[in-house]
Amino acid sequence: MKIALLLLCSLCAIAQNPPASQQELQKQLLEMEQKIGQANSACDYSYFRAIEAEEFIFTDSQGNVTTRAEDLAGEKDCKPNSDQHSIDEPRLIHDGDFAVLNARQTITGQRNGKDPRADAIYRRIRMA
């Protein structure tokens, strides 16, 4: 299961209507992360094609790196599930056109009788 790290298209809306504060920006980015979790559970790869930039990379909790092409190639093997995604400990760094959202995401559910978990997810987002 891959989670989008570089969001590009969705951020166009943020760039056109800049948030009033750091808290509002963080709220908007966390809402996007919730949508990403839902798209993962529903195998909604059209969502990932829309928001993942060509430069997209994902680093999982074991340090494995996945590119956009590798992430999108997972569509053929994806099986919808009922995983629950929760995000906590968000930290936002915002400087001009860039924002970095660092948060921990916990995924609860089962894969072949195992409990998958992903944490320490990092994002670098260009906002313009």
Can you offer a commentary on this structure?
The structure is a single chain. The chain has 128 residues and is an alpha+beta fold. The chain has a single domain (11-126), classed as Roll (Nuclear Transport Factor 2, Chain: A). It is built from four helices and five strands. The protein has a three-stranded antiparallel β-sheet, covered by helices on one side. The radius of gyration is 14 Å and the shape is globular. The two termini are 28 Å apart.
Summarize the structure.
This protein has 128 residues and is an alpha+beta fold. Helices cover 31% and strands 27% of the residues. Strand 1 (57-59) and strand 2 (65-67) form a beta hairpin.
Key descriptive features of the protein:
two-stranded antiparallel sheet, alpha+beta, 4 helices, single chain, 3-stranded antiparallel sheet, 128 residues, Nuclear Transport Factor 2, Chain: A
